[in-house]
Amino acid sequence: MNYPGGIKHNNISKTSQSTNYANRGMNLEEELNITNKYYRDLDKAIIYKKPTPIKVAKANFISRQNVKITEAYFEMPSTTDYNGIYNGKYIDFEAKETTSSTSFPLSNIHKHQLTHLKKVFDHGGISFIIVRFTHLNETYLLFEKELDSFINSNKRKSIPIEYFKEKGYIIKDKFNPRVDYLEIIDNIGGIDNEKRN
Fold first, then answer.
1. Helical residues (DSSP H) of the chain, grouped into ranges
2. What is the architecture of the domain spanning 25-187?
């Protein structure tokens, strides 16, 4: 390959078929926001990050168009991070990162969030968690049904990475979209939305 200035580089490796984009200096939330914008721009899905519900206690009215919030607090617990619609189905999910290389602490997800994901599933929606193991550069999607099954059949306070590997789906690193979780939903041909007994 010839580069400007006549510099030739012949030592470019052609053996790697895939590139690892996981360590680009962005966190999972930023990458998901970029992914969701990509989906919206292509009109593939309409999925947004939910705003955190806050109540403004004090504000400085600098001008009519310029108001600075000086004091606020969380009005109520938020449900999950993201929601929207894809192929006529409601999607709702929580995204988390962990520095552990062996397990994901369940304390990272609040009980009301687990309840919300279960209700979405029970009403026919698609609900799941996306967990990134940052030290491993691995990101997994675990559907709510498998998450609920683990919680109800274990007394552990964390989900071992082996469970993600066995019951979840790894999200391959890509350039665009960065965290292509819809590819998993497409590849498995939808999910089992039968209600629990």
1. 28-41, 111-122, 144-153, 161-167, 181-187
2. 3-Layer(aba) Sandwich (3.40)
